[in-house]
Amino acid sequence: MTRVLVTGAGGQLGQCFREVANQYPQFQFDFKEKKDLDITDAPTTAAYLLQNPTQIVINCAAYTAVDAAEQKQEQALLLNQNAVAQWVQWAEKFNFSLLHFSTDYVFDGQQKQPYKEADAVAPLNFYGHSKSMGEQAIFQSTARATCIRTSWLFSPYGKNFVKTIHQKIAENQPLKIVDDQWARPTYGIDLAHASLKLLTQKNAFKHKCYHFANSGVTNWYGLAKAIAQQSRKPADITPVSTSDFAPPAQRPSNSVLDTQRIENMANLVLRSWQEALDECLKKL
Fold first, then answer.
1. With 90 as the cut, is the pLDDT of residue 39 above it?
2. Which one, 39, 42, 113, 219, has least CB within 10 Å?
């Protein structure tokens, strides 16, 4: 049986992997939250890997606070760059495969067509920069390592846009939501399934990068309206432009990802973000 270590298991994506784990009996999962295994503590993590040999590491640990990263740059780099570079070294030393996750925010959003894995990165914010630096550690390595870029992650777990808007609608709060940023929302449960299906493929590590998101494109306003409609709750939602908000971190206006590579490699049929959203809201 293949041993799989999942780091950051207390976070949003880590909890999604926990939910689907029992559907993959070929894998023996070892879930570690930060309190169990702090991946920024290199000596402790190296000792753990030595004592607990694993075949695959799925690294869900990340610094994900996009606006806060503008100020807390060292913290963002520690998790999103330095820790990934360390994982790559360990993958070579301890002979395991590494799956890491990145973001659509490595792109500047100026491209008209969906972004492919080989398209040039040009992050607009420090979060995107730190994730891009982590990717480089994987791209430049000879280890069996790959990353999956994803966009607009939501699930019943952790902190995310869908949970926040769902709560505010329930409290009858009027909302102003931007309508000039476009992407493909990603359901964390579907990402976990896609990741594990990819890892069952013989040539999974032929590519250093994949893109995954649910099918269909929308903006934040469209996603908020769908949350209200599928929750069957009246909602006061007004579309506004990003310039009305001026958040600390700039976002790409169009970060739609092309997912053809992972669809082909893992034989995936992607469901729409609306269908995935419906499942998520039922769980909430």
1. yes
2. 113
